[in-house]
Write a structure and sequence with these properties.
It is a single chain. The protein has 303 residues and is an alpha/beta fold. It contains nine helices and eleven strands. Strands 1-2-3-4-5-6-7-11 form an eight-stranded parallel beta barrel, surrounded by six helices. Strands 8-10-9 form a three-stranded antiparallel beta sheet, with no helix packed on it. The N terminus is likely disordered.
Amino acid sequence: MHTCALYKEIIMKTGVSSYSYSKAVKKGTIEYLDVIEKTAELGFDAIEFSNLPVKDHDGRVEFAKTVKKRVADAGLEFANFATPADMLKGSDGNLKAEIERVKKEVLVAKALGVDKMRHDATFGFNSGERSARSFDYYLPRIAEGCREITEFASNLGIKTMVENHGRYSQDSLRIEALVNEVDHDNFGVLLDVGNFICVDEDPVEAVGRLISYAFHVHFKDFHVKNGSTFNPGLGWFYTRYGTYLRGAIIGHGDLPLSQCMNIVKSYGYEGTLSIEFEGLEEPLFAIETGLSNLKRLISSVEF
């Protein structure tokens, strides 16, 4: 008997971030809340929302209730709520104020009915700023904020996460150090398998390092070009060390997604895998194609 047959069947659900539709929403191709029904129509199991388009807290809570009902009526699960935060520069650099602001976002998450919420750790300082210091230098402060927020959220049945994004908080070693510094079972990682390449880190090694901390997983792809070649132009951006990247439909880019899927499945992850598309293609086409490829990726490895 092949050893793989000894493993239990891993069942994972597919989801999509509302952020993936953002270009279509801005162009008027689809209305903001209509992405819910479109997500169900395309055949996803779940949806997650990246922020909400209402500024005041009471309005956000009421809007969240509307979103919750439409998601339920569409027959979808709610995978996650993502909200901005910055433990260094948020709320004009006042950590306590930023903590209290993000706690209010936990209440929004509660109104949405989610059991997981991603908030940012920090986007750090630009290298030219006098206040610039290493991630390790600021780690205790960042962890203090994350810990107080997750302690508050745990009482409401909501797990909190940070994502590997934003350059300053993108490396897997930095994210692992933050999780260990926070040292709370309610705090983990939204693991984005694509984002590591933005800081020139090997996605396979990084996914292997962080999968044990993952509460939720994003699948994303990028086109990659050597930084010593001609600048490709519109839609491309630099990594930390000068490689060219452009967002891609899942399966159309250059990242080792199959190997990353092997790691995710071999670890036994049974949560949702969410598409986060940020390429140049028409979003609805890109999301539908990405879902087809994601499903094939999931089924291509059996443990």
